[in-house]
Amino acid sequence: MKVTKTLGQFIIEKQADFPYAKGELSRLLRDIGIAAKLVNREVNKAGLVDIIGEAGTENIQGENQKKLDVYANEQFISALTYGGECCIIVSEENDEYLHIEGEVSKDAKYIVAIDPLDGSSNIDVNVNVGTIFSIYRRKSTSGKPTMDDILQKGVEQVAAGYITYGSSTMLVYTTGKGVNGFTLDPSIGEFCLSHPNMRIPQDGHIYSINEGHYTHFPDGVKKYLKYCQVEDKVTNRPYTSRYIGSMVADLHRNLILGGIFIYPVTASAPNGKLRLVYECNPMAFLIEQAGGKASNGYERILELDVNHLHQRSAIFIGSENMVNKAEEMMSFFS
Ligand code: AHM
Ligand code: MG
Asked: Which positions carry the signal peptide feature in this UniProt record (predicted)?
């Protein structure tokens, strides 16, 4: 019989990679795994109960919040609050950051940024959605955490990952020592190690972008798309276009098969659409750890200054050679 390793067992085993760790990060990752299972349960029965549809409130970006967005946000906040290892939560669904106070979190060292339900416009049509998380260690050693603790550059992340809720549910994460993927076994209710040491191919054949915005793309992006579509036997072009509209699902596929995901600046999103703190930075950290690359078209995502919680950025992320080529095309017009 094949013996599988659970997420919990794997986390404990990997704690040895951090000689000074006291298990706090491990407990934090465990808490995220617990919330993910609860969200998974609700996502799976979304068509059965009256939980799909809009909640009637708006988030900071003025987008209607779906009921499952609200539920997912509550589950992650609750798991992180009661877990006791997290002092600040930044969420796509909350205008301000949440400072967790109380006995259980009084010495908490970690700051967690989350997009609790990414790709939520896909919920009502039964298409993959996901959760993205990013973990930082606070820098200040006493008192209330400061904005400097919260607005750290992506390079300072100590862990990051995503959960994709789909035909099977997976949790994929990194602590800066490679990337590992776990598939939820519903029969035992555990995430089991299914994709150890994930590596993104250096080259790929898939490009993922919302071409509906083509007219408003920067010239460098238009040039790169033309490059993707032109026939060339040596480089195996034309490439294949695949776009789900759920960043987690699009990136998960490209991580496994090789590819590039682009969300550039557009007329309606002049700074890009995706959020730096809880979408771009965690995905950039994870994809770099898998051997890929992430850029805003000119600079490494992980080194961008972070000025506010809900800051947006353009993103070009995926197989290294593809991102390099896209950057080259961007540089012709800069
Ligand atoms: P969300 O966090 O509000 O769900 O938005 C993020 C999503 C990404 O998952 C996806 O890549 C993108 O928005 C899709 O946007 P568009 O519909 O403009 O292509
Ligand atoms: Mg979202």
From this structure: none
Residue pointed to by tokens 């919680």: 309
Residue 118, ligand 1, Cβ within 6 A: yes
Q: Which residues sit in the known binding site for substrate?
A: 118-121, 210, 243, 273
- CB of 122 within 6 A of ligand 1: the answer is no
**What gap in Å lies between CA 190 and CA 186, rounded to an integer?**
7
Task: Answer for the pair 252, 179: CB distance below 8 angstroms, yes or no.
Answer: no
Q: Which one, of 297, 67, 40, 252, lies nearest residue 161 by Cα?
A: 252
Closest Cα to residue 132, out of 86, 50, 73, 47?
73
Sign of the Cα torsion 150, 156, 161, 162 reads: positive
C-alpha 289 to ligand 2 mean position (Å): 23
Q: How far apart are CA 33 and CA 284, in angstroms?
A: 21
Measure the CA–CA gap between 118 and 278, rounded to whole angstroms.
10
CA dihedral defined by 263, 269, 272, 275, rounded to 10 degrees? -110
Residue matched to tokens 């339900």: 117
Closest-lying ligand 1 atom to the alpha carbon of residue 263: 11
Backbone angle region of 236, left / alpha / beta, with phi > 0 → left and psi within -120 to 50 → alpha: left
Residue of the CA atom closest to atom 7 of ligand 1: 119
Kindly report, residue by residue over 37-92, the tens digit of the pLDDT.
999 998 887 766 666 666 777 777 776 666 888 999 999 999 999 988 899 999 99
DSSP assignment of 24-64? HHHHHHHHHHHHHHHHHHHHHTTTTTTT-SEEEEE-TTSPE
Write down the ipTM of this complex: 0.95
Q: Which of the ligands is closest to the CA of residue 73? A: 2
Positive or negative: CA dihedral 292, 296, 298, 302 = negative
CA distances from 129 to 57, 94, 124, 164, 167 (A): 20, 19, 10, 6, 11
